[in-house]
Amino acid sequence: MIWELLANGLIGYLLGSVPFGLVVGYLWTGRDIRESGSGKTGTTNVLRTAGKLPAVLVMVGDISKGAGPALIGRFVFHSDVVAAFGASLALVGHVWPIFAGFRGGRGVASAYGGVLGLTPLLSLFFPLIGAVLIVPTRIVSLMSVVGVPLATICVIVAAARFGQPWAFAFYCVFATLLVEFKHIPNIRRLAAGTEPRFGQGGNRPATG
Fold it and tell me: CA–CA separation, 202 vs 143, rounded Å?
């Protein structure tokens, strides 16, 4: 299995490193979107700096990063462990992309893509969790900081009670830790009450 792990891990990392946000943001604005807003290449910063359509394109691209190696692991290598490992490395690639100077996004869309590829049925509930958190508050980072751990708990329960592969749960725990780590500045602003709401902050200099 070691060769399958290495192969899908490499596929995942390289796919995760494709900087959809950087490319789409440059095509729409003519500049590096990392210079504004959060300084990241993810969907939220593209929305703030470039607009709705490019944000949708980036979201689809970033979700595919996680879903791709997960599906390859399941249906090409026929291994849940290989699938989860590939999805994990895709997340690492998105956050620290080799093709973009190791400056990427925070990994939420790619993390969701991994779940979508690993356990499609369960993933259908996750947008509902996000909507419940975003709609009343209009704070996107709250969905990431609170919603990702809640989604992970769902996968762990599915593994413990309903026979879902534990490899998928371990992937979700890894994704949660990485997403929370990348959101430390957001967590601090949430605690201070200064976190921008939906549609705000796109023109400010990048703050990280």
Answer: 19
Model confidence over 63-80: pLDDT tens digits?
Answer: 999 999 999 999 999 999
Distance CA 67, CA 146 (A): 22
pLDDT tens per residue across span 114-140: 999 999 999 998 999 888 988 888 888
Closest to 110 measured CA to CA, from 134, 133, 86: 86
- Per the CB < 8 A criterion, the answer to whether 206 and 34 are in contact is yes
**Six-digit token pair at 73?**
């692991």
Q: What is the pLDDT of residue 201?
A: 52
- The type of residue at 60 is V
Six-digit token string for 10: 């490499």
- DSSP states along 63-99: HHHHHHHHHHHHHTS--HHHHHHHHHHHHHHHHS-GG
> Contact at 8 Å (CB) between 50 and 203?
no
Distance CA 110, CA 189 (A): 23
- Count of alpha carbons within 13 angstroms of residue 107, beta-carbon side: 29
